[in-house]
Amino acid sequence: MLPAVCVGLVLGLSSLITYTSHQGFRRPQPETPKPQLVETAPRPQSPAPADDAKSQPGNIVTAPQGGPKLIVVGDPMKRAQDPRTAHIPEPDLLEQSPFGPLPVVAPDGRRALDVYAGAWSGARGARVAIVIGGLGLSQTGSQHAVQTLPPEVTLAFSPEGNSLLRWMQAARQNGHEILMQIPLEPYDYPRVNPGRNTLTVDASPAATLENLHRAMGRITNYTGVMNYMGARFTAEPDAMTIVIQDVAKRGLLYLDDGTSARSKADSVSAQQGSPFAAADVLIDASQDRGAILKKLDELERIARAKGTAIATGSAFDVTVEAVTSWANEAKARGIEIVPVSALVRDPEKN
């Protein structure tokens, strides 16, 4: 009798296990993959098909082979570089050349102008940008400028300078937005000489681009370029068009230092749809502290009247000290010091 009972129990338990293995312990069926939301910067896109309901303005819908659709949501606020890595170039924003790495627009549409732009409040009110050039020409002067000037001040590097990579990294780590200066032909050239690889009016387009790229390849992480001298070159629309076209296609701004009334940089930039700004005041034509402070006060008056103003100067010790002192006082008077990229006429944003 006992063996029969045991056999029955074994058979019953076997049936239970068989039943539960198909019912109670069934593995859950894999879920159908859902569209994934990925935050990234917006990129240029073709018009979405009319029958794709998920293709909305500002979003990008892609379908990797064999995988689910990815809805890429563009967020302009995500474009700026992390301040902790501001001294490190973004690989997608560079192309290699015989003259060093050159800026390019990233595959997702990001520009150096956006990624390397300095921070500011975004508020309205009187705003001024101050650009101090000649970084790299003097090692002690460069160190003094990088370590002393407020981070809101934009620094411009000379292609003639030394240890430019070192100073670029130090400037970016200290919060500065940076520009690259381009030597352009002045009147009375070569008696008045901006330096090696000067862009000249009579050069061929290929030679002009070669010298432009020699300067641009010295460093990375800059938002744009500005002229160094160049009264004759900037007065020639054909010569300027070659430069502005290349600068614009690389996602950069062009800053005119405002020293030549004959400059065609503004009109050429408007024609080419290039980001552009022009300085209102040169603050240190006279290297005297009192004269520099008067020019900075003039800058403030322009900003209060127009809303914005831009000044340029050089990394002389007297200029650095005067700008630092004035900037701290101007902030207390409600003037915001902003990077030059904040005051650019940018067709992409406007």
Automatic annotation (TrEMBL):
Region of interest (Disordered), residue spans: 22-71
Any Pfam family the entry gives: Polysacc_deac_2
Name of the protein this chain belongs to: Divergent polysaccharide deacetylase family protein
Protein's GO biological process: carbohydrate metabolic process
